[in-house]
């Protein structure tokens, strides 16, 4: 009998059930989409923040002081210690290698540009998008990943060629453009592009690392290494010195993607090196990220609140409209409990159907948001599904509870006369 | 009572509009069905509040996040050409161009020699301003008396490993400095020694060659500022720091887009909530509708009555909701950004018009559906 009541109620009141169902579906859909976006936004913004470039720098352990003003090196180039280029792919073997987006070695060399008025210039050797292998892994890395604000007019040089890029200001001073030749330390080289960075590189010649090493006469030498990594905002625990940590605490520190612990691991991977976070980038990343995450969390709460309210309102309206029916049931001897049970059963059914459809719709919506804003997928954790269903049922019940209470309290006489 | 109603009816039949009767009906409808009217109003208020909070947040988030992004430091740099000093009035010109919307800090650089002959870069600057500009500098203690120096972490290993006072010489002139604190940034600053500009000037006579500027404006405002500075200081190079500007523009754009998507979803949900509540409310009153119709009220009058009711509800809900929404936005601002979101009154007309529009749609839609139904059918409860 109970089953038939529920079944008939759905069969005969298609319009009302549809309205309530649509409200639940939309509410659940919005909630799903917002939760999915909010849980994934940290990851997405983290990646966007990598536009700021490298957040870690690795230098030789016995490095001498930089004598650099405004990016111009005033020290003889042969001075100082170097890292070994052959060690670089080992970065891929560190614990957090999945978080390392890319790295770029740098080797500045002073060169003479043989021009009408012969001049000293800095040639910076680096990777552009160099293919490297570590174990079975094959990957590409270089300034095109770590320094995304570098813009090239013309083409990027090949890492295995001897072609060069000319900084914008230097090119203007020398009157060269892409496609021209330039004589560097006695050798002619082709300029394939003009580089604009808004920084000191505008006054430099940028060349493949091998060329810089050849000019310097030190094969395999790297002056410093910039690493761009996804990190977790620094907290008090991150600032602890790994030397003072014991056992489980050390493991936890080592296995958290803090900038400090990734730097520590880079130092382990590359012999005789010193890795440090570039505080301007690493520190601020954390604050910006936590602000944006916090904002989205609060907005998601607002979305949950709004959809809960929409569902409640729809349910309350649906039940209120059926007070004559309640009156009739009560006049025929139904108790409050069996009337309430009928409504709750209907609400449960609606919540489950709306929940499933809404979850599917919300997932699609989140995916669409991810694709159109971040150009990447927003992953939806499967664990979200039961959570969303539970929320849908709870909200639907809560929204119905008040209306059901009023419906069962109704005197059947008044209800049937329509005087409620 | 009945005579007044009769006279109203007579007036109506005579074709004269009776505004007081109209108002009376509006008032009584709200008072007699207090519960239902209150729940409709509540839905309206909540929806308007949520919409206000989201719009306010969307408008203000740019300013709030920009402030966070200014922690990245300077976004414009003014450099003298070819290692010369800047003109003496450059700093004042920069400050007047900034007009308080940002921070400008002068830097002077020299290469000095330590007592054992190593070269080290020494910079003179306004240390109090640097502290505000470069908030990421990790400093053990900021110097505050003359001849106190801030020593970079790597430089300190060379000049004063034990933290003792050390000598530096520049063109035969020697200065004795006390290492007040150690500086760690992970960049070139680690190899430098920072002094107050006054100390550096009296020791070497070198004038500032760089001014770093952190301007807190939109990208167009920064572009305009760069133009203005280039005109005021033709002999020097003024350039934006692209690394900082591009990163900021990108993250800001994505955040705003996400927030906009969220705002659209939330506002649509809130509007839906209002729609379903109000449609229920109006449907519920089909008896009133039928009686009015049976008594000879015209279609237009009835529609007008329900529409006026909805509009009043929408307006009241919007204004109350606006107040609450501004509060919610301010609270979110304080919790997340540690600064309240400023109420934007430009949002108010949007919220009011939107609320009234949604209320009107939800009132007129059921009337439109009931229009063909005979009053007798409704009154019989069918």
First-residue to last-residue Cα separation of chain A: 27 Å
- Helix and strand element order of chain B: HHHEHEEHEEHEEEHEHEHHHHH
Work out the helicity level of chain B. 55-70%
Cα shape of chain A: elongated
What is the strand tally of chain A?
16
Q: What is the terminal-to-terminal distance of chain B?
A: 30 Å
Low-confidence stretches of chain A: none
Number of distinct beta strands of chain B = 10
Question: What strand line-up does the widest sheet of chain B have?
Answer: 2-3-8-5-7-6
Question: What class do helices, strands and sheet pairing of chain B give?
Answer: alpha+beta
Pair with the most extensive interface?
A-B, 73 and 78 residues
What is the number of helical segments of chain B per DSSP (H or I, 4+ residues)?
A: 13
Give the topology string of chain A: H per helix, E per strand.
HHEEEEEEEEHEEHEEEHEEHHEHHHHH
Would you kindly provide a written description of the structure presented here, covering whatever features stand out?
The complex is a heterodimer of chains A (420) and B (382). In chain A, 49% of the residues lie in helices and 20% in strands. The model of chain A has no long low-confidence stretch (mean pLDDT 86). Chain A has 420 residues and is α+β, with helices and mostly antiparallel strands. Chain B folds into two domains: 16-67 and 251-379, no CATH class; 75-240, no CATH class. Chain B contains 13 helices and ten strands. In chain B, helix 3 packs antiparallel against helix 12 (347-370). Chain B is rod-shaped. At the A-B interface, helix 2, strand 2, helix 8 and helix 10 of A face helix 3, strand 3, helix 6, helix 9 and helix 11 of B.
Supply database-style keywords.
heterodimer; A: 420 residues; alpha+beta; 2 domains; ten-stranded mixed sheet; two-stranded antiparallel sheet; 12 helices; 16 strands; 49% helix; B: 382 residues; six-stranded mixed beta barrel; 13 helices; 10 strands; 59% helix; 17% strand; rod-shaped
């Amino acid at each position: 009998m109970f089953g038939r009541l529920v079944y008939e109620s759905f069969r005969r009141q298609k319009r009302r059930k549809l309205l309530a169902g649509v409200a639940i579906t939309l509410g659940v859909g919005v909630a799903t989409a917002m939760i999915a976006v909010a849980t994934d936004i940290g990851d997405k913004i983290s990646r966007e923040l990598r536009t700021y470039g490298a957040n870690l720098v690795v230098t030789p352990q016995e490095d001498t002081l930089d004598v650099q003003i405004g990016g111009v090196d005033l020290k003889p180039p042969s001075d100082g210690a170097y890292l070994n280029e052959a060690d670089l792919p080992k970065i891929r073997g560190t614990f957090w290698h999945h978080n390392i987006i890319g790295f770029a070695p740098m080797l500045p060399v002073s060169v003479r540009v043989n021009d009408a008025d012969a001049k000293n210039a800095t040639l910076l050797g680096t990777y552009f998008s160099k293919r490297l292998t570590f174990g079975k892994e094959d990957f590409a890395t270089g300034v095109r990943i770590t320094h995304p604000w570098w813009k090239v007019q013309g083409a990027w040089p090949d890492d295995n060629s001897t072609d060069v890029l000319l900084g914008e200001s230097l090119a203007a001073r020398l009157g060269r453009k892409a496609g021209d030749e330039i004589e560097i330390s006695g050798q002619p080289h082709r300029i394939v592009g003009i580089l604009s960075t808004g920084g000191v590189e505008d006054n430099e010649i940028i060349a493949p690392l091998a060329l810089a090493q050849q000019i310097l006469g030190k094969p395999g030498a790297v002056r410093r290494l910039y690493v761009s990594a996804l990190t977790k905002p620094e907290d008090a625990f991150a600032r602890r010195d790994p030397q003072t940590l014991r056992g489980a605490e050390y493991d936890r520190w080592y296995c958290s993607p803090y900038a400090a612990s990734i730097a520590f691991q880079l130092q382990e991977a590359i012999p005789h090196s010193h890795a440090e976070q570039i505080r301007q980038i690493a520190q601020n990343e954390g604050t910006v990220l936590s602000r944006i995450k916090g904002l989205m969390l609060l907005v998601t709460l607002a979305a949950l609140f709004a959809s809960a309210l929409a569902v409640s309102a729809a349910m309350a309206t649906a039940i209120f409209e059926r007070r004559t029916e309640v009156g009739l049931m009560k006049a025929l001897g139904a108790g409050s409990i069996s009337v309430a049970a009928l409504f709750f059963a209907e609400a449960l059914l609606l919540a489950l159907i709306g929940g499933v459809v809404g979850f599917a719709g919300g997932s699609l919506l989140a995916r669409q948001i991810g694709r159109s804003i971040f150009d990447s997928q927003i992953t939806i954790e499967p664990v979200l599904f039961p959570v969303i269903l539970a929320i849908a049922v709870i909200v639907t019940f809560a929204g119905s509870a008040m209306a059901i209470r009023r419906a069962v309290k109704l005197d059947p006489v008044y209800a049937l006369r329509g005087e409620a | 009572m009945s005579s007044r109603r009769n006279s109203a009816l007579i007036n109506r039949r005579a074709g004269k509009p009776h505004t007081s009767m109209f108002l009376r009906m509006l008032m009584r409808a709200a008072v007699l069905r207090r519960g239902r009217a209150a729940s409709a109003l509540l839905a309206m208020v909540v929806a308007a509040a949520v919409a206000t909070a989201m719009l306010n947040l969307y408008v203000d988030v740019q300013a709030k996040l920009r402030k966070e992004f200014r922690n990245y430091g300077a976004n414009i740099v003014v450099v003298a050409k070819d290692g010369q000093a800047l003109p003496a009035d450059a700093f004042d010109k920069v400050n007047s161009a900034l007009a308080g919307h940002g921070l400008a800090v002068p830097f002077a650089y020299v290469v000095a020699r330590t007592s054992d002959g190593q070269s080290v870069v020494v910079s003179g600057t306004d240390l109090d301003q640097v502290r505000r500009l470069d908030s990421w500098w990790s400093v053990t203690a900021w110097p505050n008396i003359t001849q106190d120096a801030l020593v970079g972490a790597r430089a300190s290993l060379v000049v004063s490993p034990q933290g003792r006072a050390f000598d530096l010489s520049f063109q035969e002139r020697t200065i004795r400095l006390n290492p007040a604190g150690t500086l760690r940034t992970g960049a070139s600053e680690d190899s430098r020694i920072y002094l107050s500009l006054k100390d550096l000037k009296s020791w070497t006579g070198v004038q500032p060659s760089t001014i770093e500027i952190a301007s807190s404006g939109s990208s167009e405002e920064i572009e305009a500022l760069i133009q203005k500075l280039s005109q005021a200081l033709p002999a020097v190079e003024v350039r934006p720091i692209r690394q900082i500007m591009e990163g900021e523009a990108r993250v800001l754009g994505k955040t705003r887009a996400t927030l906009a998507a969220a705002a659209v979803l939330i506002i649509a949900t809130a509007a839906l909530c209002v729609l379903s509540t109000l449609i229920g409310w109006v449907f519920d009153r089909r008896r009133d509708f039928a009686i009015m119709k049976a008594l000879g009220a015209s279609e237009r009058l009835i529609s007008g009555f329900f529409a006026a009711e909805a509009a009043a509800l929408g307006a009241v809900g919007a204004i109350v909701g606006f107040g609450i929404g501004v509060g919610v936005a301010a609270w979110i601002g304080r919790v997340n950004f540690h600064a309240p979101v400023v109420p934007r009154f430009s949002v108010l007309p949007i919220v009011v018009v939107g609320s009234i529009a949604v209320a009107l749609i939800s009132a007129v839609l059921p009337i439109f559906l009931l229009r063909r139904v005979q009053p007798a059918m409704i009154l019989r409860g069918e």
